[in-house]
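User: Batch of two.

Assistant: Item 1 of 2:
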Amino acid sequence: MESIGIIMNGVTGRMGYRQHLVRSILAIRDQGGVELPDGRKVQVDPILVGRNEAKLAEIAARHGLEKYSTDLDQVLADPAYAIYFDAQLTSVREDALRRAIAAGKHIYTEKPTAENSEVALELARLATAAGVKNGVVHDKLYLPGLRKLERLLRGGFFGQVLSVRGEFGYWVFEGDWQPAQRPSWNYRAEDGGGIVMDMFAHWNYLLENLFGQVESVYTRAVTHIPTRVDERGATYQATADDAAYAIFELAGGVMVSLNSSWTTRVNRDELVEFHVDGTHGSAVAGLHRCRIQPRAATPKPVWNPDLVESIPFREQWQEMPDNEVFDNGFKAQWEQFLLHVLADGPNDYDLLAGARGVRLAEAGLESSATGRRIELTELSL
């Protein structure tokens, strides 16, 4: 069987290991590869790359893999590998992507693609000039709840979309009496941390692909918990934001208010939810679920604070059916990118899209620092 070599850099990290190696590439391997439009199947052939040889060897042995290396340049020079994938820290991603592009590898990478939008845009230009195909992880578009929401949008369920309210987050423990669920670098700005840099790239691709291009942003980013405890038990100062409260204005007039927080306790059905209101109906979509209320079934409440509310509002929403089997979102996009490389399939989620995500995060931080609403201009190659 034909195979395609994939360099996987950063698989010793949580996301690179669990979502990209185990649940994507190894799952594709175990299903017999990816099927091309002409019916042929191409198997994936990964090589693990990183700085810690012992960790790489342990992961490789655990999953029956033979190939791993700590020498990225040597692997990039090997023509057996056509794709370079990066799940490293943002602070070291730029250099590796430049080297991979120079080596003529197709690029697939986590986000943010760079520490600032100028570099992110330059990487997109370099990849285009080199003629290599490139993609950026847009995993949340493949989530069951968001795919159901997309189905509603395509079918005209909402009429005119008016507004979107989003709530994302959960309480990340400080690390003193209970270990934190996120790595300590997330809370150090000097290491590329902060919820704005982490989440605004997600919000950009979700908003522009579902509702419209982001034209302006107003954000207040804060550090609610100033002191945390790291993986070694040492206390450190949190220099990055752990919560962000934002308003986005989209092309076409849709207004979006979106809270992102690692300092909130969850009182909703899922860790992220988007409430969409339109002239003909509303929906609440999360990671997996999507509930709707059409115009004709909308109740007619009357404000009266003197009476206990008797309308069971939450019971008056209808659950959207699955209607299909939803695969892991990371795996689904991996398969799409592999088809892009192998059979010139469609790919809208490239390094230019990644640059727009970085630019939105920058604009959010600028807005927070200056107290101003920041207008966004079009990015182009």
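Item 2 of 2:
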Amino acid sequence: MATPPEQALERAAGRRLWQVAGLAALAGVAWVARDVPAALGGRLTGARAQRAARSPQFRDGTFHNRAGLRSTLSEPGPNLLRELIFGKQRRRPRTAVPLRRPDAAPAADERELNIVWYGHASALIEIEGHRVLIDPVWSDRCSPSAAVGPRRIHQPPVTLDELPPVDAILISHDHYDHLDMATVRELVRTQSAPFLVPLGVGAHLDRWAVPAERIIELDWSQGHRVGGLTITATAAQHFSGRGLRRDGTLWSSWVVAGAHRRVFYTGDSGYFDGYAEIGAEHGPFDATLVQIGAYDRAWPAIHMFPEEAVTAHLDLRGGLFVPVHWATFNLALHDWAEPVDRLWAEAKARDVSIAVPRPGERVVVDHPPPVDPWWQPIA
């Protein structure tokens, strides 16, 4: 039996052990959260805030959708929570997603138009001798932390160092699966192209040390010339925010127009009547890159269902439909392959031409390959 002095020593040792464990736990939390403050980005101040306040989309301290939608998500009712925990959906593929390394680009000419999809919404538009990179996210997680958050289902088919020189980098909005701090910082090092972003998003880039001369902020209907291209920010129906505060920056779709060829990218958006107006003003488009994944009944106004995506493509007067925003991150409750299966069925029913490349595969818009359902054996 331990003597009183021995018992006192044991209690003191126990207290020290708990103190050490507590310090280790705090150190672990600090390590996990070390990049979070910077990843949250910046806030609108000074001239940037004054410019935002002049936007027709800005009132009462935040940006707004044209339709006046304020509620971005429904309340997560018991059915949604139950599905999240106990749902039987297959939200990841059974085996590895097949990747491709892009072949050498065809010789550039005034009619050139190719699309390279890297996964999720990240893609390269090769148009009339120019290259435009959209929503590049190369990190392992779309999250403010490198240790927690939605993780990639497949790796990028190429590294950022292997990207060819690009002429412009487009960002549709500031959500983590479209705007990634680590990717932006690496692109500052490896590329010289300007970042074209919606109003306010430049505050995030400022915090990440992107040179001011490489930040071009645009409101809807404003354009910017890059070489022989006119790149225009157009309307979308979505929301923004990297922390607890929402809608402090604008979200947009994009028109990339050369002398002969035109491409449209939806960014993230619910279906709305603005697509017909964009098609009438800026179309017809040789190709559209349209969001098809991460939909749910709980947020019908901010992400399109695949059938709505086909309607948007037709409203836009689009030629070839290239689906994006699927396959790479698990961000909704539907099966992993459901978006593209629904898209293919709807496209056949409505006689819409689609191309469904593997990540990294180049699509020559004038000669798209027939649809090869590569996703079905692994779904």
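The two ends are 63 Å apart (CA to CA).
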